[in-house]
Amino acid sequence: MDIRQLTTFQKAATLLSFSRAAAELNYAQSSVTGQIRGLENSLGVELFERLSGRSVRLTQAGQRFLPYAEQLLHLADEARNATKGGTEPSGRLLVGTMESIATYHMPPLLEFFHHRYPGLQVVLRPGAGAETVQALRQGSLDLGLLTDVETGHAGTDGVVLRSEPVVAVAAPGHAPAGRRLVTADQLRDVRVLAPEAGPGYRRLLERELWGGRGPTPLLESGTVESAKRWAASGLGIALLPAVAVEDGIDAGTLVPLAWWPPCEVHTQLAWRRGTRLTREMRLFIDKVSEFMAEESDQIAA
Predict the structure, then answer these.
(1) What is the pLDDT of residue 215?
(2) I want to staple 227 with a disulfide (CB 3.0 to 4.6 A). Which of 125, 141, 193, 259 is the partner?
(3) Distance between CA atoms of 255 and 246, rounded to whole angstroms?
(4) Each residue of 193-231: pLDDT tens digit?
(5) Thinking of the domain 1-87, which architecture would CATH place it in?
(6) CATH number for region 97-301
(7) Which residues are CB-contacts of 252 (< 8 A; sequence separation ≥ 6)?
(8) 156 vs 232: CA distance, rounded Å
(9) Which segments of the chain belong to CATH 3.40.190.290?
């Protein structure tokens, strides 16, 4: 069992494809197959189940071995850095994130890392919150930034960074927009636009607005920008992070409603449970926490 075999195994386990792993590692596919076979021989177990075509999946032994392989690779990176005598954080961090966080929270943080720690490459992988959590469990991401009602997710550990105000907005001519007070009863027949809605968020909305009475007029738009455009065109009411609708409210294309969602959502940072946090991961966690705290203080002021 050597580092090259562990690296190949981790990549193949993440992508669930020997051919894609070979392409990313710049190996011939036969090399990937040979390294995996050699690792399986040294461990005395099969790590992958070969399916029809070129797809594979981890066996139970492979699933149990994956977190150990990742820990060994992290230790190898630390050993290399220590022997080089480097004191500055370096390498690459793969961070899953949601569109709203990447667009409205991450730019100043990325600029900070670019100038202060040029040897550390922070790579963002945008996606839905559920996708980020699944990628963390599979080990294909180092860290994940997500916004959700739930503050704990199976197979992960993490920290809550801040509560994220959510605002209901609509086009100026939309019926609820002119009311001094909007109730849940008045919204039950209105289409609600909810980007990046996690299961917990959706359940709370359905319980508050429709009480489980048949099909719900909740439309998941997929992105914050599409939800803003749809709301501005009169398609429905959008539930969006307050920071995302400030420009639309200032421009007069969106109007905040006098109704508040029945739940709080939280921006949080997560990582795979059992992961040994590297120096770079701890640094990112600390700096994200600092930046989010500063943002909250500015909003409060």
Answers:
(1) 55
(2) 193
(3) 10
(4) 876 555 455 566 666 666 655 556 677 766 778 888 888
(5) Orthogonal Bundle (1.10)
(6) 3.40.190.290
(7) 172
(8) 37
(9) 97-301
Residues of the chain with CATH 1.10.10.10: 1-87
The pLDDT of residue 254: 92
- 67 Cα distance to chain centroid: 20
Model confidence at 125, pLDDT cuts 50, 70, 90, reads confident
Kindly state the average pLDDT of the residues 3-9: 90
Q: Cα–Cα distance between 165 and 122 in angstroms, integer?
A: 27
- Please count the CA atoms within 13 angstroms of the CA of 163 that sit on its side-chain side: 6
The secondary structure of 166-184, three-state, reads: EEEEECCCCHHHHCCCCCH
CB 128 within 8 A of CB 196: yes
Backbone angles phi, psi at 61, to 5 degrees: -65, -40
Kindly report the number of other CB atoms within 10 A of residue 214's CB atom.
6
**What is the separation of C-alpha 154 from the centre of its chain, rounded to a whole number of angstroms?**
14
* For range 61-79, the mean pLDDT: 83
**Predicted local distance difference test score (pLDDT) of residue 14:** 81
- Give the DSSP per-residue string, 39-88: HHHHHTS--EEE-STTBEEE-HHHHHHHHHHHHHHHHHHHHHHHHHT--S
The 10 Å CB-count burial string (b at 16+, else e) for 14-38 is: bbbbbebbbeebebeeeebbebbee
Residue 168's contacts (CB-CB under 8 Å, 6 or more residues apart) are: 182, 237, 238, 239, 256, 257, 259, 260, 261
Q: What is the pLDDT of residue 271?
A: 92
